[in-house]
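As a warm-up, study this chain.
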Amino acid sequence: MNKAPSVVSSHDIHHIGRVWKNVKQTAESMNVDWEVLIAATFLHDLGRHYPKGVGEHGPISAPLAKKILERVDFPTDKIENVIISIKYHDESFPSDKRTTQESKVLYDADKLDMFGAVGVSRYLIFYAMRNKTLKETVEYALKNLPLRFNRLEFDKTKKFAEPNFEFALQYFKKLKQEID
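Now compare it with the structure written out below.
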């Protein structure tokens, strides 16, 4: 991340730490490859810190991650699973692209960071950095939050996310009321 052109604060090391916490909670009692999940979690947003990574960044992150994995002698037979997990973690990809349990876990764990007080703050920071007005940010959040929630891969994740999803949704509804 430090070698990237610019670090996007909404996708910094603190985001990665929260995603890792979510990965552990989501994958608890699942039969997953933890080595794959560690690598995918820590490398999934590399592309976000490059100019072309403003939107869909999984396909930008994946080749950057592959170079790192090869350089550190990551087990060759696990690299493809890490790359699938990273490449398809963007919400724009349909669920059928996430063909491994690890890719589904990473997807959900990453999306969980968009709910709750932290999620609200991340929306506000991310879209302010893109020069969006508060009204544009609120309208986008109100449209996007339910999509993110409904596209979560596991019922277990939805149950865990529901209170934070409701908090974020209510916050943006209230904010919309106040700015309209």
